[in-house]
Amino acid sequence: MPRYLLKCGCCGQQVEIYYAKDSLEINGVMASVENWREVLLPLLYPDQPSPQASRSEGRFSMKVMIRLSAREELKALPILLRHSPGMGLPDRTYVISAEAVRALREAGVRFKELASEVNPPSVEGAESGERI
After folding, report:
1. Does residue 113 contact residue 66 with C-beta atoms inside 8 Å?
2. With a cut of 50, which residues of the chain have pLDDT below it?
3. % pLDDT > 70, the chain
4. Fewest CB atoms less than 10 Å from the CB: which of 16, 87, 101, 103?
5. pTM, whole model, 2 decimals?
6. How many Å apart are CA 97 and CA 60, to the nearest integer?
């Protein structure tokens, strides 16, 4: 599979991106191109309206990034498998639909909301090269 290797100019950190026609693997996290687009475009173009928010058919919905404890993840997995075409990231972090978030809350699953398309993470105040 072809790849891009992006290296930091001032330290040894790097990002490895393998790509195929319909999927990308970024630092070991495999997802469809459409899923990566949903996660990355709001970060790259924060002033643009989200393509998911503008679609009214319901196929796409707002995405939310959450983190679960190990215990809560056990309760959440059956719900996530049933409700969300989301993406699993390292450290029990998930990018899921707003509907899945609602289902988790209704089931009493506790989690930390890290970001959403309504409230994306900010890079303000971050030093150049600082991990955020």
Report:
1. yes
2. 54-60, 132
3. 75
4. 16
5. 0.50
6. 8
